[in-house]
Amino acid sequence: MDSKIEILSTIKIDYQADLYKIVDFLNRTLKQKDLMFGLALDSEDKSKAIFTIYRT
């Protein structure tokens, strides 16, 4: 079984402590639509976060 993950969109946004709640909510709600969401702290600017939308 070959599983590919496709990046649909990425955006850099201001980091907020509760952003992970939105990402968790989206992942739980839309996983049946083969969508996955990611959030990572920007390694160059700790006041920014990278939000990514994937298709599985």
TrEMBL record:
<dbReference type="InterPro" id="IPR012190">
    <property type="entry name" value="UCP036698"/>
</dbReference>
<dbReference type="Pfam" id="PF14084">
    <property type="entry name" value="DUF4264"/>
</dbReference>
<protein>
    <submittedName>
        <fullName>YpmA family protein</fullName>
    </submittedName>
</protein>
